[in-house]
Write a structure and sequence with these properties.
It contains 5 helices and 6 strands; from the N terminus they run E-E-H-H-E-E-E-H-E-H-H. The protein is an alpha+beta fold.
């Protein structure tokens, strides 16, 4: 499944890559001004990405052997389409490598995963202020779902909803 192009390599992550994955997660959190929300640890990532029931998958991008980005995604399902899909949780390219085709290559590989799995769609969220990302996604044919609002329940509210 590895994709190589000249000096770019995209490959699936392994459990040995957990420290790198956490470093990249911290990179995207810093870019999104959300570093204070990162509570992920190597142990949690190892368990949930490579344990008995992996919850998500990760692709890593390298240029000239140097780690430059990642994509983390997981399966979802469309009741309207009656087919599975892929949700892209995070796509991150280190700042010094942006605009060089790495993000497009990562997104293309995630799209290939969705297509190989007979997926009906690939979707993701982007922060409203992230104009460079929005412009990039639109240039690839992505359509913003402006009529939808993401809702989230976490922490105490999640435990209360679950009656725990």
């Amino acid at each position: 499944m590895a994709v190589a192009s000249k000096n770019l390599l995209i490959r699936p992550a392994t459990s040995e890559d957990v420290p790198l994955i956490l470093d990249l997660i911290r990179g995207i959190a810093e870019y999104e001004k959300l570093s204070h929300e990162v509570v992920a640890t190597e142990d949690l990532l190892r368990e949930h990405l490579f344990g008995p029931r992996p919850a998500a998958e990760v692709l890593l991008a390298y240029v000239d052997g140097n780690s430059v980005g990642f994509a983390l995604y997981f399966p979802n399902f469309s009741t309207f389409l009656g087919r599975p899909g892929v949700y892209l949780e995070d796509l991150y390219v280190r700042p010094e490598m942006r605009g060089k085709g790495v993000g497009k290559a990562l997104l293309r590989e995630v799209a290939r995963v969705a297509a190989r799995r007979n997926g009906g769609r690939l979707e993701w969220s982007v922060l409203d202020w992230n104009e460079p990302a929005i412009k990039f996604y639109k240039s690839l044919g992505a359509v913003p779902m402006d009529e939808w609002t993401v809702h989230r329940v976490t922490g105490d509210a999640l435990r209360k909803l679950a009656d725990l």
